[in-house]
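Narrative of accomplishments. A recurring question from our advisory board has been how the design workflow behaves on a single, concrete structure rather than in aggregate. To address it, we present the structure tokens for one chain from the evaluation set, followed by the sequence designed for it. No filtering or post-editing was applied between the two.
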């Protein structure tokens, strides 16, 4: 069974962080000065300035990445999202996105923004499905950007809690005697890194090992 794990960035991940992002940027655009600084010096550009970088492992192989660049105490920029070509359409982009939302909330953010290009239709579709809304675009950020989007993290947690509760309740109706429980995020062991600066206001559903998780499926199949 394939497994996707989200872990914190380590210096040894820099080559993958750069490679995955260069693939898509140079395919459609060109590396801007800001891109070069972030890709070549991710710890200095992102982490040391209060942000975070997450890496996706697919069956223990490095498969994708996303960064959170600190804008201010309440807002982080969702940036440098990329999935390796061999690992696309496996749900990795969505897993990275949701892990990034959780990390942003842990860092104290209430809002996440992003800049993109409307010609990247698959990416825009994913962002809208995740809950991003278009907002006015200011100039001077990225030359290639023609759209700015943002998401209210409180809205994300509200929707996730409701959706997951509904899945559990539906499962229980059709599988009498099955055992489930709700566990607070603080007591759950979620592999998105060791930094715990305060749990976001969200409940996680914990299923006992014998519950057939495949019945619930993945939220999305695309990346």
């Amino acid at each position: 069974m394939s497994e996707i794990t989200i872990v914190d960035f380590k210096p040894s991940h820099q080559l993958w962080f750069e490679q995955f992002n260069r693939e898509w940027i140079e395919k459609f655009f060109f590396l801007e000065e800001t891109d070069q600084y972030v890709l070549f010096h991710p710890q200095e550009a992102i982490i040391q300035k209060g942000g975070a970088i997450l890496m996706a492992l697919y069956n223990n192989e490095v498969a994708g990445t996303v960064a959170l660049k600190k804008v201010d105490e309440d807002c982080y920029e969702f940036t440098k999202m990329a999935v390796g070509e061999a690992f696309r359409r496996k749900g990795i982009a969505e897993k990275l996105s949701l892990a990034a939302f959780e990390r942003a909330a842990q860092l104290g953010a209430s809002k996440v923004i992003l800049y993109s290009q409307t010609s990247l239709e698959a990416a825009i579709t994913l962002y809208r499905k995740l809950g991003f809304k278009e907002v006015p675009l200011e100039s001077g950020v990225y030359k290639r950007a023609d759209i700015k989007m943002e998401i209210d993290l409180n809205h994300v947690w509200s929707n996730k809690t409701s959706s997951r509760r509904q899945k559990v309740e539906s499962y229980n109706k059709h599988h009498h005697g099955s055992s489930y429980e709700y566990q607070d995020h603080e007591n759950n062991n979620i592999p998105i890194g060791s930094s715990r600066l305060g749990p976001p206001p969200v409940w996680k559903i914990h299923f006992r090992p014998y519950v057939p998780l495949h019945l619930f499926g993945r939220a999305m199949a695309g990346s």
